[in-house]
Amino acid sequence: MITTFSTCEINGPVIGAFLRHIEVSKQFDLSINFEHTGSHLILTHAFDRAVSLTVRNSGEPWRGSVLTSTLTKLKTSQNQISVGPEGIQLGKFWHIPMEEYDSTVADRQRKYVALEKAIWTEEFLGKMRGAQAFQSNDETRWVLQGVAVQDENLVATDGRVMFVSPGNNSMLTTHIIVRNIPKVAGNALISIGNSGEDPEDKIPTRIQWLFWIEKAALSITDKLVEGNFPNWKQVVPPPPVDPVKVILPPSFGVILAMGKGEKHIRLFNEGETVMAQFPLKPPFAITGCHWFGEESNQWSVAFDPKFAVKAIKAEFKCIEIDDALAPMRWKRLPDDDDFLVMMPIRVT
Questions:
Q1: Do residues 12 and 101 share a domain?
Q2: Within a domain: residue 234?
Q3: Pairing of strands 113-118, 87-90
Q4: Is residue 149 part of a domain?
Q5: Which of 68, 93, 111, 236 is deepest in the core (most CB within 10 A)?
Q6: Which helix (H) or strand (E) holds 88?
Q7: Full domain range(s) for residue 279
Q8: pLDDT in tens, 144-190
């Protein structure tokens, strides 16, 4: 009986995507394991990362490994890379003998006890990446260093401004906090799983990002943020019954830049005109700004300019004002579901 070993074809960009998401040590040249199971080609790195490629060819299983520095040479290639038990070949010009399978690389990465599975669209992933702009980068507030996925809500906050996106069908019942969304192009399938050995463990500790790339599926594992997200619903104000809605012009970002270092900026109305004022400076009209409400109403609100910069950069330009002391809702457009919560400042 003749034994047939499979040679798998991998796109160069797939290798590049894998290497971009592993921590390559500058002091140690660690191995990357290759394992062909008959239907999948699994790449495992010692630094807690793994890739599973679905292959269409079948054959006898085999194992091998190469050094990280060796594989790094292939990541810029746009061509097909052939991987088999006898080595790695790029076109007709590259041949790297496979080393012996490195048993020191923990193969627990190959085992995932699937707790839940969800299909998230590219639009949903884009919204999650946008939410990352509002998560904390403070190492002492590590629970806030991610985007909370709770039922149909996406929530992110740095403790000053909070992003909330309701009405998203993530198909998840387990609440998770996700950090480091891989920026790999393509339609995404995401599988939430647990790499632990105990099926009774109900807290997911791994997230697999599956991106369909031509004929293969690329899965990059990343750690979730462990811990309980704060009770953000307690902070969300109820929708104002009859709010004043102020739509800011594109030039408002320039106005905020003028107030860099100022403690607050105050917005108020004089008739139909929206006025702005920095501390100890005369008020000035905001050209191109509009507000909606009863013309006879007098309204005023103040907030910290540096907290509003993130809102403006993310194109949140519509403020819903209930009163001068109530938390403000910032929206991209008045009828948009996504909103930011920003606390006002009392100005005496």
A1: yes
A2: no
A3: unpaired
A4: yes
A5: 68
A6: strand 87-90
A7: 244-342
A8: 998 998 888 999 999 889 999 998 876 677 788 887 665 543 444 45
Number of Cβ within 10 Å of residue 337's Cβ equals 11
151 and 71 together in one domain: no
Given 171, 194, 223, which residue is the final one in a domain? 223
CA angle 98, 207, 7 (to 5 degrees): 25
Which residue in the block uniquely carries the two structure tokens 């005109």?
273
User: Could you give phi then psi for residue 310, rounded to 5 degrees?
Assistant: -60, -40
What is the residue type of 227? Answer: G
Tens of pLDDT, residue by residue over 269-316, are: 998 899 999 998 999 999 999 898 776 788 999 999 988 999 999 999
Q: Report the number of distinct structural domains present in the chain.
A: 3
Most confident of 11-20, 201-210, 327-336: 327-336
321 in Cβ contact with 244 (< 8 Å): yes
Instruction: Specify the amino acid at residue 185.
Output: A
Sorting pLDDT into bands at 50, 70 and 90, what band is 114?
very low
pTM above 0.85, yes or no: no
